[in-house]
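Troubleshooting: if your tokenizer reports a length mismatch, compare your output against this known-good record of 123 residues.
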Amino acid sequence: MDNRKIMVVDDEAIILFSVEAFFDTYNITTFSNAKAALADLDKNTYDIIIVDYKMPGLDGFDLLVAAKKKNAYKHGILVTAYADKKLVDEFYKHKLINDVLEKPLALDDLQVVVDNALKKLNK
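Known-good structure output:
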């Protein structure tokens, strides 16, 4: 099991279930609610945070801004069906993310991005 901590935040249960099952040897914590994820970041830090953009209550941008202020993660991955250039540029401008993947999410692509992130973090 990889001891690196990964948080996944998405309001679609199938995404959370799929990622957790696919990365079964990783230390993954999932949240279907961004506000619950934010509360968790008061007491935990993560190596990687994988976040959906559009979620009810608190979107992925605001979650990452708050998480960044808490120094709660090292590597951010945005997963969204709304990856227009202007939106993605805002995430990068604020140094909230390192990678972007579009939905529908291809788990093999996520594997490559996560593995590359872990290699960088292990240096």
